[in-house]
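Support case: user asked for a sample of complex input and structure output to validate their parser. Sending the pair below.
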Amino acid sequence: MSMDDTTAGHLQELRRGTVVLGCLVRLREPDYGYALLESLNRIGITVDANTLYPLLRRLEKQGLLTSEWNTDEARPRKFYRTSPAGEQLAGILTADWKNIDRALARLTSGDER
Amino acid sequence: MTAPTTTLTDRYVWAAVRTVPDAQRADLDRELRERIGDASDALVGTGRAPADAERMALVELGDPAVLAARYVDRPLQLIGPRYFLTWWRLVKMLYAIVLPIAAGAVLLAKMLSQAPIGESFADAFSVAFALAVHLGFWPTLIFAILERSPGRAPDLSWNPDMLPELPETGRAGRLGDLIASLVFLTLFAILIIWQGYGAPVVNPIGETVPVLSPDLWSFWIPWFLVLIGLEMVFAAAIYAWGWNWWLAVVNLLLNIAFIVPALWLFTTGQLINPEFLDVIGWPWGEAGGVVTTIIVFGAIAVTVWDVIDGVIKTVRGRGGSALSLGRI
């Protein structure tokens, strides 16, 4: 395994949970898969379609997202929206994310070694 | 082609949804069409021809069967990590225990029914082969079904009591083996000598009848007594150094030096004293052949096991029991 593969693997692991958090926050406004994919990547939360679409289904199955088919346009689209349970989880994940960030900052500055 | 309007997308969606349960088909169908449509529209937006864009979008999605399996959370392996070790231990244990017993039983049964030696071995081999296929297939099938059945895994959780004992590396662990070997070999040597003088078998005129042919005293009985002496030295060597490959080979040679002449003498009728056979009324009608076969078979089985046991102990690098299969 080359150095680049190792780095890519660790980056992917580090980002895995942030995609869930990104979806839960972003889907407070209902949206469909492709639009979500585009907007997450645009703001720097990188995710590919083969990860995102199954993830949306899983989050829906876990009751963190709700979905509704929009058939107004020629192509029917499934719109997802964060459920109250998803909102709660987003709060917990965000708090934890900030804790980790602070902890890493302390480690880096060498305050509480 | 069923209709001129059939597109690659239609074919892809059909290939994916046919593998999921009926209830989820309509939903997955719509979701996939949305996803493929949006992806190819985006590609068209970057200047690609619609046909190329559709094809690229499908390539991006990958194998429809894999995609569908991900959608419905179906495992893509025969036996996953949840059951793999349990399955592996079971199969190893079945092979180690059932196969040799079954092959040996068939071989013995064939020889007892006076079948030719080649045919006996061929039958034992074919039974062992068929059994190996069955022993591999059925547990695997059951575990593959378990892997695919919903619900909690049966409680096969590990606990510290299952930890194997550390191998006994010191001499203390081998002392038992040494004592057992020396006692057995001594008794064996005494028995060989004693049967020539004080055996409890007497002829009609009251003379003691040796069990082994008295002619053997010129060479073969001393040969076997020397071998017994060497076996004692060998047992001491095992005690001193533990099993290693040299000693495993010596064990093989000692076994061959013993079993080959013994069986040759036995089967050519030179081993047992003819007068002794007269006294016990040998051959016992039909039973004679059976008893002979069982003795030959048993002797070979014990020898083969002793050699294998040496190899197993060498491989494990210890003097403990070789019967702790299944612990792994």
